[in-house]
Amino acid sequence: MIASALLVVAIVTQDQSALRSAPRESAPQQVALAQGDGLEIRGQKGDYLQVYDHRRERAGYVRATQVRSQSLAPEAAPELLSVLRFLRDTPGSEALGIAYAAAYLRAAPPEASVGEAFDALGTLSERLARRASAYQGKTGGDTLAAHLDVAASYGVEMLSFEREGQVQLCYNGDAFRRVLALPSTAVQKATAALALTRHDCVAPNLTPGERFAQDNWRADVLDRVELRDLPEVLKNRLHLRKAGVWASLAYQRARRPDLAPSAVQTAASREVQELAAINKTELGESDAYAYSEAAVRVGASRWGAEPAPMEPAKQPISQLSLRVSAGQPGETCVHVVDAKHDVKNALITRCTYGVVWPASVSVNRDATALALAVQPQDTWREMWVFQQSPTGWTATVMPPALDNPSLGYVEFAGWVPGKSQMLAAREAKVDGRFKRSFEVLRTSTLDIEKQADQPGSINAFYRWQDPVWKAGTVSVR
User: What is the crossing angle of helices 141-153 and 115-134, to 10°?
Assistant: First the structure.
């Protein structure tokens, strides 16, 4: 009996299967089992199997029709793998699939290739985490909780983060790491790399040093995937993910004084190249959201790819311009200067803990206003507008959206001569959707006077859009 128990297991196939104290329907129910629960078979009485639940340390009886008796002998491995392949692509059967993955890994002979099984295990675990995150507060929560408990009993670990007032569950990726380490197909490795580098599964409470190390690791994982033999849809997804990761690295490198400006420019150039590598004709409808997200991430830090302006010592102050200096630890101060006002006697000074992009500076024709890109977060870039008023110089910060900083950028797009107007483009995630707009602003107040979802719909963009903006922006794509 003991040898038999080690080689045969009962896998529960139906949720709410009753573990009863006796082999009859009227016997008290001890516990409700969930799909994927593994039970040790100790005998059979009529229509019931006598089993022992090691997870709950309970013995009892369960209907034979509610479980599947499965051999764990090596010769049963092909059958287990066939069932696992079916369950891998069956939404709602994640817990059952995880049980079969565990059974196959136990039954597989030493010479068997188990990369496919770990790929399925990771895919099922990630899909279960997504389901649990999406169904919070909805019906079916008890069943999902039971499936998560089943997964945990097989060693599947979920990570929990709080984002935008909701709990985000993420699979810790152990099976996908094994896929990358084991002999696996190019598609399996690409799938694993995408799962391990999700933006929404990066812990929000990491320190700057930890986040920098995490993003460097993500970039390395993605770069190790060979693109040559992949289908176009997977190539696109990898390019989109790389664009987002390198955009974050450009921002983080710019915050580190120990790194040369060339390191920032390399990362920012890489993000732009990855976004440009997208094959739009093969971009699936399901990837449209990911494409918009990648574009916003690139748009937030794309100024890092532009060459740094001349050093102040080599650039005499002959007209309205900007100087940058260090403030308090971690702080950067910007000074608006001209021929009569140097840094010590600047027209206006403002300091920030965000990343200042000096290459973005643009001065209007009358030298009465200056626009600057400042990035306080890796996915959020603001526009600062300095302007002369009757009482002196003022600074106004224009955010991409009025929501809490999440994903977005707003950028200067051109000056309209003689009309106290400027052009701007913005793109942001608002209420879960990405919105893009091109605007004519009143310079003095930054109020929107005209707005459209395409630049061609506004006449001012035909005549006065800035050529530098047009050449570098990702808002027109």
Answer: 150
